């Protein structure tokens, strides 16, 4: 019998296997011998992607600047790199199996065989660091977002709004999702669902109640979303909605869960159509459209634009922010930010109702953003605001002004929908 406190020398089951796995991960992530001439770029925290197309090597940095680098990649290096990765995942790369993928907590590796990549064996190394690259201070200085936009999104999290982040590939959807998730109170359980681990919520919020689920061949995203029903989450954060999983996701959201997730769109107004197109039947599409405007609260679009100071570089920014709501049978997308600019401070009554319920007064301003602007990325969770410091909703209502007649109509219609 093992008594508590007397089992210090008893080996934990699986300890040896875990140690071996950790050694393998270190060998993949930190081996200079493995990466050769690419090693400095693997170690450079500002580099996010390293791509070899069979002839040239291109790198992308955290400012989304992509450039070709002058390094020599030999056939011998390509062969040994492939073999090492193959050994790591216990899978061969050949004509019968032309794709090889591996993942560590910090890296995602993808290799395509020359039988499929006719330009030559293709190697992609993508970094997924366990920290947030965006900080409030950098966001304000770089023009990623202004203080009002950040305050609004901060208050949307505090008011438990369901948020969908849209954008094209490479726009920075996941990074914004990680950034916003830091505002979730530590005691509110968060379950993240991903096929490739990029969120690292347990690392960026070590003080928080979090469960991280990774999907795969035997545990699909549908399985993960369904399993969450009995795991008591407050937030269900899915890395990306791509297909039919949109239906169980919205089913959970309609049941009261909150969430942050991402989707491929080029305009927040297209979020509903995109989600409907993922459904597997006409009836499901009709239900989805209704659910989007009933339970999805906020749409955010992350975009890229040309850097005026460097024509070769594109910069990321929060392009659009919009609210979804219904009035009877009519459905609305209320856009407050367009092309990175504030277009109106008027907010739907449904939004004001949720803000008021959380005792949020000035939606467009908060001391939180000012205080967090002095913190580097990854340290947001360390600040604990003083309870009761927010001004009352009615004292600050002029900052979220809305025409009284429109407000009365919207309030009445929305109340009828919810009662």
Number of helices: 15
Number of strands: 15
| Dominant shape | globular
With strands numbered from the N-terminus, the spatial order across the biggest sheet is 3-2-1-6-5-4
Q: Average pLDDT, to the nearest integer?
A: 83
Reading the helices and strands in chain order gives HHHEEEHEEEHHEHEHEHEHEHHEEEEHHH
Question: Strand fraction band?
Answer: 15-25%
Q: Percent range for helical residues?
A: 25-40%
Ranges with pLDDT <50 over ≥5 residues? 1-13, 378-419
Biggest sheet overview = 6 strands, antiparallel
What gyration radius follows from the Cα positions, in whole Å?
24 Å
- The end-to-end distance, rounded to whole angstroms, is 59 Å
Structural class: alpha/beta
